[in-house]
Amino acid sequence: MTSEYLDRGTILIVDDTPTNLGSVLDFLSASGFTVWVARSGSSALKKVQYCQPDLILLDVLMPEMDGFKTCQHLKANDLTKDIPVIFMTALDDTESKVKGFNVGGVDYITKPLQQEEVLARAITHLNLRNLTKKLQAQIVERERAQADLQVLTQELERRVEERTAELSQTNERLNQEVAERKLAEAACQASEARERHKALELENSLHELKQVQSQLIQSEKMSGLGQLVAGVAHEINNPINFIYGNLSYALEYSKALVTILDLYEKHYPNPAPDIQAEIAASELDYLKDDLPKLFKSMYLGADRIREIVLSLRLFARQEGYEMRAVNLHEGMDSTLMILQSRLKFNSDRPSIEVVRDYCPNLPEVDCYGGEMNQVFMNVLANAIDAIDEWNTQRSLEEIKANPSVIRISTEVTSSNWVAVRIVDNGPGISEEVRRHVFNPFFTTKPPGKGTGIGLSISWQIVVEKHRGSLGCISAPGGGTEFTIEIPIRQESPVLSLSA
Q1: What is the pTM of this model?
Q2: Other CB atoms closer than 10 Å to residue 429's CB: what's the count?
Q3: CB atoms < 10 A from the CB of 138, how many?
């Protein structure tokens, strides 16, 4: 037996007459535990200040300080509050048991102690504590990863703002040069034709420069975001796989314990009265029935986290310069998952409902998946911004009468074309604004809220890189609809925007 139970942990037994527990002490030591003994509650409290055991077996009836008082002191101390405490007592009345649980005890063992019962309860509570520690460590690690993500996001936004300010200064200088050229042209009639030609070339260069600048800014931003999201997804994936992989073993262990209990009930149908009382008090049948449900809930939670990680990885996919067949529905769903926090209700704004009307037979489309996700992100973010701004101007009654909705639909429009439509019921835009929505650096948002390059980049991705079309239909008070149409199969390769 000694070789079977090695490194089980440390157990502190607090009893004013530990000689009565000699057989239990020997049995626990032989089972692989390190056993400490304290003869009083005050002695135990001093001992745990310097070294904490993994489990405490605490006698209830002791002089000076009984077990209940000792347990209260243990739970009030940050060093020892998480150590599980099992009471040992000859008392079997309900009031004593309730009092023990109220002061922080996790279990009861009735004297005289049975070696196998003490061992089983000790192993059970030590396993529960180890699982709790692992889950808490995973939670702390996830919170740390989220904090790192927030810091990196803020740093990325700062860099984009700095780059935008630099480009604005460059644009101002170029505009000034254009103005100076025009003045020189007016002053020099002899070279009027030549100067006009140079001015036209300069304006074309400025337009091309704006496009290149917008591409560089957006590419840098999305590249950094993609790497960040992919890194976070990888870091979360490792701990959740650890939890998910160990759940099956924990379920097998619990099934084994339940099987042993069933065998005890079968071969010993009439146990001692104190065991019968403990079975009744712990509602053993309910515990055996509820334990598989508990593990099922834990499986569902772990599966949900794995789905979120998969969505992050899909959104951050990096195809490089190679066009592949992509499931547009997966890309749209991963984008919506990234934007989920902006769609949910919070104290600052109401929720935005997303209605998906996907074509059930939509084929995979030849495209750059990461760039198409960027298009979905830009269009959806603009829709959310418009709805949020509109809701700040509406009363609660108006919002309830006309809730915020974004509808997404897909369809096959011809033998080689698919369409994605994103429609919101926001305030809409005027015809004058609609004609300029795809122009670089055009924005109706206040300073600091937008750069005016998101829809311009989206137009280049859809029209120039995928040989498709990107249209906008809107009117004041009538919402806005964006339609993305691209070929299912490309006739020849197209360079990626990142190239």
Answers
A1: 0.45
A2: 20
A3: 17
SS3 track for the chain: CCCCCCCCEEEEEECCCHHHHHHHHHHHHHCCEEEEEECCHHHHHHHHHHCCCCEEEEECCCCCCCHHHHHHHHHHCCCCCCCCEEEEECCCCHHHHHHHHHCCCCEEEECCCCHHHHHHHHHHHHHHHHHHHHHHHHHHHHHHHHHHHHHHHHHHHHHHHHHHHHHHHHHHHHHHHHHHHHHHHHHCHHHHHHHHHHHHHHHHHHHHHHHHHHHHHHHHHHHHHHHHHHHHHHHHHHHHHHHHHHHHHHHHHHHHHHHHHHHHHHHCCCCCHHHHHHHHHHCHHHHHHHHHHHHHHHHHHHHHHHHHHHHHHHHCCCCCCCCEEECHHHHHHHHHHHCHHHHCCECCECCCEEEEECCCCCCCEEECHHHHHHHHHHHHHHHHHHHHHHHCCCCHHHHHHCCCEEEEEEEEEECCEEEEEEEECCCCCCHHHHCCCCCCCCCCCCCCCCCCCHHHHHHHHHHHHCCCEEEEEECCCCCEEEEEEEECCCCCCCCCCCC
pLDDT digits (tens, 9 = 90+) for 335-379: 888 788 888 887 777 899 999 999 999 999 998 887 888 889 889
Alpha carbon distance 151, 338 (integer Å): 17
pLDDT of residue 420: 96
199: number of Cβ within 10 Å: 17
Per-residue confidence at 71, pLDDT binned at 50, 70, 90?
Answer: very high
Within 8 A by CB and 6+ apart from 307, the residues are: none
Residue 440 pLDDT greater than 90, yes or no = no
Cis before 427 (ω within 30): no
Predicted local confidence at residue 495, as pLDDT: 47
pLDDT of residue 496: 45
415 vs 323: CA distance, rounded Å:
20
- pLDDT, one tens digit per residue, over 27-65 is 888 888 888 888 888 888 988 888 889 899 888 888 888
Closest CA to 81 of 47, 109, 56, 59: 56
Using CA atoms, how far apart are residues 387 and 428, in angstroms rounded to an integer?
A: 9
pLDDT in tens, 94-130: 787 888 888 888 888 888 877 788 888 888 888 888 8
- Give dist(CA 146, CA 232) in Å, integer: 8
pLDDT digits (tens, 9 = 90+) for 122-153: 888 888 888 888 888 888 888 887 887 788 77
Highest mean pLDDT out of 89-93, 136-140, 222-226:
136-140
